[in-house]
Amino acid sequence: TTNGRLALITPLGYSTTARMTAGLGTWDTDYQADIANVMEQMTTRKRSTFDAGLLLTNNSLKKTRVRFDYRFRSSTLEDNVSTAASAQQVIDQDRQSHRANLKMNIRLDRRATLKLHAGWRSLQVDQTNSVDDLFYTMGDRKQNRFSGGATMQTRASNKVRLDYGFQAHSQNFEREDVEGVKTTNSAVRAFSGLNVFAGDKLTFLATGSYGLEKFEIENSQASAGDMGPLTYKGSTIRFAPGLIAQVTSSLEMEAHFEMVRFQDPGDAPEESNKLKSDLNRILLRAGYRLGEKMKISASYRRHEFDENRWDDYIMDLYSLSVSGRF
């Protein structure tokens, strides 16, 4: 194994800083498995990598901080596996990936901050497999992913915090060794989170989100109503409130609830083609301190799952624990 890396940090003017890195690496692996002193399998693997990165930070805009980073990585792989039965598999692989992210933090006022981000990732793999197929491998392939989002952080007062925003991504994966087969996935989600500190001993918190997601494998076997593991287009609603109370100096209690609703309507009008699932979870927990070094904790969890196609279940879980420091 051989590795090397260089790094450079330098200012670009008064408001921009650049950080650059580059690295090289090689790995040589020889492996042999014997049974009764007879070679059963032998592997020779050689991999070399190169990566380079750039990070730029800028604060020239008033109340705004901008961060951009880019990373490139390439690698080559030579893998040779042979067995006692004279079978042999040789893999030659060239792999390249790119990743770029842009983030901005904008302070609107002393109680509100807007955060924006956008990202892109790309992967290209060229791979050849020769002789025997001893293990499953995938041939040439490529993948691209775009993502973005925005978050607003607000502080209405010292005791109320509210965050809300959205996230989105779109991704496709394509096998170039199998013509026409392509996987696409896209999703968008809106979310919010609320914390209320009602005095020093009581905290209320809640999170909620609504999301849409679509997944599809082109030129694949179709399923009834365009649903199943190969194709779906679903929506999810989630709401999770909670309460934390410091009842006395020794007793603390918590109560949390989570509700998740999922639906995949499919493309067919029949009700039987619609997939619906409900999940409810409850957590009750209490802790009592016996002095400074010991604590007794008790909790109750309940999970309820209801689904219109497969089995439903209800689970109740009780726990009691004692902890201490000695």
What attributes characterize this protein structure?
326 residues; mainly beta; 15-stranded antiparallel sheet; 0% helix; 77% strand; extended
General description of the model:
The chain is mainly β and 326 residues long. It has strands at 2-11, 16-35, 38-58, 64-83, 88-109, 112-131, 141-157, 160-175, 182-197, 202-218, 231-246, 251-264, 275-290, 294-307, 313-324. It has a 15-stranded antiparallel beta sheet with strand order 1-2-3-4-5-6-7-8-9-10-11-12-13-14-15, with no helix packed on it. The two termini are 46 Å apart.
Helical segment count:
0
Mind telling me the C-alpha Rg? 27 Å
Order of strands across the widest beta sheet? 1-2-3-4-5-6-7-8-9-10-11-12-13-14-15
Helical content stands at under 10%
Through-space gap between termini: 46 Å
The shape, in one word, is: extended
User: Helix-strand pattern, N to C?
Assistant: EEEEEEEEEEEEEEE
**Uncertain spans:** 225-229
Short summary:
With 326 residues, the protein is mainly beta.
SSE blueprint and pairings:
Elements: E1 2-11, E2 16-35, E3 38-58, E4 64-83, E5 88-109, E6 112-131, E7 141-157, E8 160-175, E9 182-197, E10 202-218, E11 231-246, E12 251-264, E13 275-290, E14 294-307, E15 313-324
Antiparallel strand pairs: 1-2, 2-3, 3-4, 4-5, 5-6, 6-7, 7-8, 8-9, 9-10, 10-11, 11-12, 12-13, 13-14, 14-15
